[in-house]
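Let us work through a complete example step by step.
Step 1: write down the sequence.
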Amino acid sequence: MDTAQTICISGASSGFGAACAREFGKDKQARLILLARSADKLQSLANEIGPERTLILPLDIQDKFQVIEAIETLTEPFRAVDILVNNAGL
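Step 2: predict the structure and record it as tokens.
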């Protein structure tokens, strides 16, 4: 049985969102989905945490079409989110 949690964090590229990602990333079994507009910052954070268990989704959370497209691209084991940190600055 898979006991690892999947955590989705919006606004993850800096500030509170990045701090949350780093904290959750201390759990080496956790899988993280990181959302923000800056692909470069997300990739840097994913590399820091562990790219093999981090999925980055660079998008504008205010654009519903980008959000729908991102959701449709999710694959196992990232499809079931256990924790959501809704931190996007709108």
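Step 3: interpret the result. The chain has one domain: 8-85.
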